[in-house]
Amino acid sequence: MQRWEMRGMDIQNAGPREPAATVGALATPALLLDKDRLDRNLARLSSRMAARGVVLRPHMKTAKSIDVARRAHPSGVGPITVSTLAEAEYFAQHGFRDMTYAVGVAPHTAERTMRLRKAGIDLKVLVDSPEQATMLGAAGRAGGVTPSAFIEIDCDGHRGGLTAADPKLVAVSAALAEAGVKLAGILTHAGESYSLCTPDALVVAAENERAVAVAAADTLRAAGHECPVVSVGATPTAHFAEDLTGVTEMRAGVYMFFDLVMHGVGVCTTDDIAISVLATVIGTKPEKGWILVDAGWMALSRDRGTAAQRIDQGYGLVCDLSGKLYPDLIVAQASQEHGILAIRSGSAQALPDLSIGTKIRILPNHACATASQHELYNVVSAGNDAVEAQWPRMRGW
Amino acid sequence: MQRWEMRGMDIQNAGPREPAATVGALATPALLLDKDRLDRNLARLSSRMAARGVVLRPHMKTAKSIDVARRAHPSGVGPITVSTLAEAEYFAQHGFRDMTYAVGVAPHTAERTMRLRKAGIDLKVLVDSPEQATMLGAAGRAGGVTPSAFIEIDCDGHRGGLTAADPKLVAVSAALAEAGVKLAGILTHAGESYSLCTPDALVVAAENERAVAVAAADTLRAAGHECPVVSVGATPTAHFAEDLTGVTEMRAGVYMFFDLVMHGVGVCTTDDIAISVLATVIGTKPEKGWILVDAGWMALSRDRGTAAQRIDQGYGLVCDLSGKLYPDLIVAQASQEHGILAIRSGSAQALPDLSIGTKIRILPNHACATASQHELYNVVSAGNDAVEAQWPRMRGW
């Protein structure tokens, strides 16, 4: 929580207050994290990977919390994936040792990465060009350490990386060897799987992700390069992959919390969604079919990921304080600090009668985006009104 | 900047670093604020209001910074508008005294508001129902202070508030008097003006906002209620209002920074946009016409406000390090920490040749949303590479 510098005036209790003991007493909007759902989601994927002999390297970009990371890894050292170097530094300073920074490395990040390796953190980075390999090698020499890098593979045209058939693949591997950089392996991410919504299509996407990754590794091995790790992953493919032959590592992040986009993809039920935004009714417009709440896009994020799905959830799906869904009640509109609740268009449901002061919970479209709008998680257990803990989130780059 | 708790290990310089002395040396992504443009934008609206004898009450929901607030109000006491009670507490503890909390009051916020009034802050709140008036009066008695409230008027169906013709208007005013709450006046916001894009339509929206506000005030006065303040405002109407007869106060927030949505509305040029996100090229995909940068939606926000406008700017418009626009180069796609730059579809422009490590600046769709993704402003002056200061932002509720 933020602490404001005082300017010699007395504002009784006007600064940040003590954590509330109960959900009902929390100032709103506030982010809730259901510990039971979190633990169930963590166990679901870790047991699935354990059964296949694949290492799970959770992506901490969603939770950005040491408390959640330790829940996923009681060992407290990893392996984890991070999306920023600030995350790498934060988790390193809390004891984590084995990390992959899953963003293409640039000159300024290479130098910062080497400082972490110098401090004993096994931080691996991504490259997909000979230029990055050469630059990374120079950063390693300047930092007095040996860098370790994955070659990023493009399995579905989603973003960066080389296709498995790209002749540059072997060239990048050779450039890494030439530059004195250790080849950690190859890494790919089936980002396009987020746009799917049937089990069959997800199984196909997962098999494609596996096949492309293994083909890329085979190409490198055939060229005489060691490729110890074959890393794949996206939450949808991680849960639908039937065969992971040749894959050594799985990465996923949003599976810890899940959200309405993942529900639309078909990876979870609304009962699996572990985070929600607590809000308070601040007005009603029955003539318009509106209920106004104090959670706008600042608390929910501007993410409209479900707009492209079969069921558009607006800015979120509305539950009562206990987590029970109000049928077809969504956040239809959002301004900075106002949300407008309305019945989904086309539904015959009646608007519930919620008076000013009533507390509700909103399930988010995209857990990564919604959680990032908040300072901390108010940790609760299903069917329990107590706020058991407040887990801070880190942010920044 | 965040400070991580150390765990007895040596991570040389791995924590947050000293502020960079130059823009070119900043770790990316980073938020830049052009002080010259900020001052020009502030002066433009304050002189416009001074010429009309209307008090300007800047909305601090966009900047959320004491340094920016003092730039707008060298007096350091107000008047200002705030969107959360955390903002009210933050600005109060930095010396501001005259504030309006422009969100409908609820039981838990009424109590917190009274603590600020007890501390000597003239914090006014919004109501639009007799229930809120009664609740607010009770909170005032419990807190040993006299609350002050605006009645929220709906001038364009945008959100909350009563229409000027609503018989409840006088009932709410009577309920305030009955509850011992001071009527500060009436307040309205032409939120629908954000969806306009021609000067004529903006002039009409501004006149409607004025006329509705004055009509509501006249209704209250005719019923024997004092209505000292007639408060209107939205950045588009504030800049296009030709006649403000009967209006005593103007509120606006995004005008300080402006953004691509305001450019699409026609209130500013791209040269007026005072904030931008500094990013670094981390990859290229010439075969796809893509340049990958390290600014995704975490740095830019998920706001796609220009998608509904005549020119869709994607997730932002791209400039070089000096602020010069690359013709038709936009952030076409964004994932959490990756942005994909591409030429706007339909344009004949060629993709610029930007190598890995090149720094660019991205103009945001929505300044309120983009700024909220960052911890601080790196303050620069036009055509100067020096980072003159770092101004922290507050957040939370």
UniProtKB/TrEMBL annotation, chains A, B:
UniProt keywords, alphabetically: Lyase
InterPro entries recorded: Ala_racemase_N (IPR001608), D-amino_acid_metab_enzyme (IPR051466), D-ser_dehydrat-like_dom (IPR026956), D-ser_dehydrat-like_sf (IPR042208), PLP-binding_barrel (IPR029066)
Keyword NADP: no
Gene3D superfamilies: Alanine racemase, D-serine dehydratase-like domain
GO molecular function: D-serine ammonia-lyase activity
Span of domain D-serine dehydratase-like: 274-381
Superkingdom of source: Bacteria
Listed GO biological process terms: D-serine catabolic process
Pfam families: Ala_racemase_N, D-ser_dehydrat
Record's keyword annotation contains Nucleus: no
Sequence similarity: Belongs to the DSD1 family.
PANTHER family reported in the protein's UniProt record: D-SERINE DEHYDRATASE, ZGC:162816-RELATED
Name used for this protein in its record: DSD1 family PLP-dependent enzyme
